Amino acid sequence: MKVLVTDPIADAGIERLREAGHDVETAYEVEGDALHEAVSDASALVVRSGTQVDRDLFEAAPELVIVGRAGIGVDNIDIDAATDHGVIVANAPDGNVRAAAEHTVAMTFAIARSIPQAHARLKAGEWAKGEYLGTEVNNKTLGIVGLGRVGQEVAKRLGNLGMDLVAFDPYIGEERAEQLGAELADLDEVLERADFLTVHTPLTPETEGLIGEEELAQLEGGYLINCARGGVVDEPALAAAVEDGVLAGAALDVFAEEPLPDDSPLLDVEDVVVTPHLGASTEAAQENVATSIADQILAAFAEEPVVNALNAPSMDQKAFPRVKPYIDIAETAGRIAVQLFDGHVNEIEIVYAGDIAEEEVDLVTASALKGVFKPLEWQVNAVNAPQIAEERGIDVSETKRSTSEDFQSLVTVTVRNGDSEMSVCGTLFAGEDPRIVRIDGFRVDAIPGGRMVVSRNTDEPGVIGLIGTVMGEYDINIAGMYNARETFGGEAMTVYNVDQEVPEEAREKLEADPRVIATRYITLTD
Ligand SMILES: NC(=O)C1=CN([C@@H]2O[C@H](COP(=O)(O)OP(=O)(O)OC[C@H]3O[C@@H](n4cnc5c(N)ncnc54)[C@H](O)[C@@H]3O)[C@@H](O)[C@H]2O)C=CC1
Ligand SMILES: O=C(O)C(=O)COP(=O)(O)O
């Protein structure tokens, strides 16, 4: 498979993909048509913050299975568009956290002691010792906006250097903050109390412009550090606040537009220290994120769970082998149920019984939905199936029961519209041998696969013979068969595995016989 890498990543990640037999192509700093051309036959795309992965790109990439972000922030990726196209988006949320936290600490000292400014003067031949009187971080208050992974690592480091910590993060528990020695407060209070304010939120519609002119005024006399995302802080307002002495200084690693344009007002302000988005640029961090993304791409290619998928159900790698066979049987049950159902589906229920009910089943449920939608949607997979259900107003419910009658585990997929429903139960025999064991309440023992015919007929002599004869007339070979009946002489269901497609005419001929109540031709071929 082709893996396209459009931002530089560590060789270790590229090697891991090549060793697995994939073709890795790099195309740095390409955009527009050239990028679309490069991605047109790619099965995976690897990016950092330098590539805009927008809806047009997904349109241009019909083979794409996964976009791997070798890093944390995914604000450059249109995740909704990825989901619409059934493409997994995964990031590497752990690998560069310490690098980003260390850079934040470095930037804090850089502005507190004017290191870049003094360095530049000395390199230019000036011994400006008398002009720099720095600020100690010891005994000062650090305000942290966003106490997630990076924010917490910063809290530990700067807390150990004698800073008091006060944090604003509406989505973090008091207890966790307390463990870190940080006090939680609202944004106003954090701004009023902080001597140094550091930002560690992702860039989202909610955080865009979070720190504007008013907030900077509240931080009066303090320093601002932003190693998160440019758009979180209003840049013109920040440049003005430092220039006018409202703030003592600012240190920025990230910018609303990257690369930072030459005419940015930030570049003209002496006490604004800048680095070109270097937070994650350490050897260790780059190796971590590149190998993590390579592993996730390999998992996606193998249809295994992608551990840090942001738009697809994921699961613990250790549990996956136990759940994997049910992923297939659930899809099959969904496909059969929808093909046997008359009418419009507005409800789908998946019931897990027995051992499988103990497991994480998000992937199995998504797979059952994929099966139900398969005949309806062109490109449906476990990534976009839950969204398709939501968009179409189809209710999806999941039930777990600890007992499962005669089976170790049973997965039942029911499609429904009001009182009318069709349910299909699947299980595994002897480990991994898939079986359909109930269709619409009939106990069957059908091996799912290929082409099948499901017939409902009266339980009387000669019916199976009739079906065999009609199939023969149309040159349809019966490869397997299972007959089930409700009661002696009542209604029976027969499931046939057939080698050829069954034409409508053959079905009509069968249904013309009064003993045949209904027949359905089902295909499980792709
Ligand atoms: N400069 C660089 O090279 C790097 C930058 N980053 C940036 O740092 C960001 C944070 O990374 P992590 O800590 O790993 O993410 P995270 O998801 O672990 O933490 C983000 C925190 O922000 C909080 N948050 C979200 N919206 C908020 C709001 N409106 N107000 C206050 N808090 C809010 C969340 O509750 C969460 O605790 C990334 O999204 C990325 O943009 C990350 C790595 C390197
Ligand atoms: O991981 C992140 O969010 C970062 O900002 C790092 O960005 P980069 O991979 O260096 O372009």
At a glance:
The protein has 17 helices and 22 strands. With 526 residues, the protein is α/β, with parallel strands linked by helices. β6 (141-145), α7 and β7 (164-168) form a beta-alpha-beta unit.
In words, what does this structure look like?
This protein is an alpha/beta fold and 526 residues long. The chain has three domains: 2-95 and 284-301, NAD(P)-binding Rossmann-like Domain (Rossmann fold), CATH 3.40.50; 97-274, 3-Layer(aba) Sandwich (Rossmann fold), CATH 3.40.50.720; 320-523, D-3-phosphoglycerate dehydrogenase, domain 3 (60s Ribosomal Protein L30, Chain: A, 2-Layer Sandwich), CATH 3.30.1330. The protein has 17 helices and 22 strands. It has helices spanning 11-19, 32-39, 55-59, 79-84, 97-112, 115-123, 149-160, 174-179, 187-193, 213-218, 235-243, 283-301, 320-340, 362-373, 385-391, 463-473, 504-511, and strands at 2-5, 23-26, 44-47, 66-69, 88-91, 141-145, 164-168, 182-184, 196-199, 223-226, 249-252, 272-274, 347-354, 395-401, 409-417, 420-429, 433-439, 442-446, 451-458, 478-485, 491-498, 516-523. It has a seven-stranded parallel β-sheet with strand order 8-7-6-9-10-11-12, with helices on both faces. A six-stranded mixed β-sheet has the order 14-13-15-16-17-18, covered by helices on one side. Helix 8 links the parallel strand 7 and strand 8. Helix 14 crosses helix 15. The longest helix has 21 residues, at 320-340. It starts with a strand and ends with a strand. The relative contact order is 0.08. The mean pLDDT is 94. It binds 1,4-dihydronicotinamide adenine dinucleotide and 2-oxo-3-(phosphonooxy)propanoic acid. Keywords: Amino-acid biosynthesis, NAD, Oxidoreductase, Serine biosynthesis. It catalyses: (2R)-3-phosphoglycerate + NAD(+) = 3-phosphooxypyruvate + NADH + H(+). Its EC number is 1.1.1.95.
